[in-house]
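Fold this: peptidyl-tRNA hydrolase
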Amino acid sequence: MALIPSTSYFAIFSAGTLIGAASAYFILRFRHAPNTEIWKNGMEERYEFDDPKDEYRLIMAIRNDLKMQKGKVAAQCGHAAVAAYAKALNRPKLLKRWLKYGGTKVAVRIDSEAELLELDKEAKKLNVLSSIIRDAGQTQVAPGSRTVIAIGPAAKSILDKITGHLKLY
């Protein structure tokens, strides 16, 4: 078995490394390149607004009686928005309309769990998506406490029938 001289070994090693690096560069560069035409069309479409009275939004009703701190409220609203989005994925036209208006979210206050459950009942009557968030109870509220309800996304005119009487949070 003959040994390859060190200069030959270095040349073969360098060529292999160079070919590998070049291949990786081209594969990664073109594999993840965005289709700019699709992206541009999607952005233009997203900001073409229809009739303003048909605006779509998501309402998050927050229980004021729990006396949650701001950070806790923000976390619970985040959970509510994600839950609402997940449900809206099953209704693509609805989701597209809501996103077309910038994914508007409005926070309102409610005073009790009973009021939260009544909002859920009204939403179901009008065939509007709703998601009730229950807290794990590891910080400020009791485990399983219903903290926030997300209602929508839906047309503002429909949401006003359910939550129009509520004050902003």
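Confidence is low (pLDDT under 50) at residues 35-50. The first strand starts at residue 56 and ends at 63.
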